[in-house]
Amino acid sequence: MRKLFLSESGLTLVQVGASALVSIGIGYVVERSFPLFAPLVAVTLVQVLCAPHRRGLWLFLFGEVNGALVTTMFIPHFSTRHAALSALIGAFVAIAVAYLSTPRNPVRRVNEAIEPVLSLLSINTRAIAAALRSGDTAAAGTAVFALNDVDHELNRLQDVLRQVRRSAIWSRVSRRNLAENVNSAREIGFAVRDIRTLARHAWWGVLRTGEPVPPALPQMLEALADGLAVLRDEMHRDGQPHEARPLLISAGRWVDVMRSQPLSISAATVAASADAAVLDLLIATGVPLNDADQMLRRPSYS
User: Origin, by domain of life (predicted)?
Assistant: First the structure.
């Protein structure tokens, strides 16, 4: 069963609400009076630590709260000691809430969000390949429209990426590097755009107009679908995505075969989009851009 994730705004409300309520509660127990600075420090500090956007604004507000704390030293009959204790309670609560509300395994969270994207791409790319082989225009159109469901999964992926950025401070402490996974997610997003383009042109430009289907086109799409499926399985295992590379290279080879033949505008667009998608997916497996380009231009892959 798919795990549920709080939206970005929902998580922010939980963090702010928990920080304020817990700090006020502890402050009342410790000071026997309303702890003015506890919720102010807790709310602003937890957002300084966790906010994915507008962190500078929260840092400014946190500085203003600290400035107000300093001015209590010059207010007659105001207990600076109690104010400092209240602020200290707020700081401890903010750190605790930030730690407890951020992902303990952000890499797994990102991979879980990527998997359904790759599944949809693989299934529908294979469906379009089968439609091209059989000349089934309706089946190709169904697959093209089914790719619209990727929007929901991409939005969910972006939401997860924003949430794991909240854990950056903790991942640095635990030496967890999210850069590779975030880069993979970004490149897969680029590949989605390219695969949608090739799917539309294969359906609307090639099948609907009755153009001859280049023999290498269905084979190229099947190799691409195989690469997407293997990449999904590797993401599921949280392993290094190396096994998908030969299949993606194979899809690139079929693109070269297509380019060696006379192509219509639509078929040429399909080939160009497939080439871009393969390049994006190779980069998503951790291959640097120049190396990925070289792999696609080499006569063989080892």
Answer: Bacteria
Report DSSP state, residue 203. Answer: I
Max CA separation in the chain (angstroms): 89
Distance CA 29, CA 7 (A): 33
142, 15: one domain: no
Give the pair of three-digit tokens for residue 77. 């009959």
Instruction: Report CA-CA distances (Å) from 178 to 106, 162, 167, 245, 248.
Output: 8, 12, 10, 21, 24
- Domain coverage including residue 80: 8-101
Tell me if 130 is assigned to some domain. yes
What's this model's pTM, rounded to 2 decimal places? 0.74
- DSSP, collapsed to helix, strand or coil, labels residue 49 as helix
DSSP alpha helix (H) spans, the chain:
8-31, 37-50, 55-71, 80-101, 106-134, 137-146, 150-166, 168-173, 179-200, 216-236, 244-259, 265-284, 289-297
Examine residue 171 and state whether it is found in any structural domain, yes or no. Answer: yes
One domain for residues 147 and 83? no
Q: What is the rounded distance in angstroms from the CA atom of residue 284 to the CA atom of residue 72?
A: 54
CA dist 174 and 249 (Å) reads 36
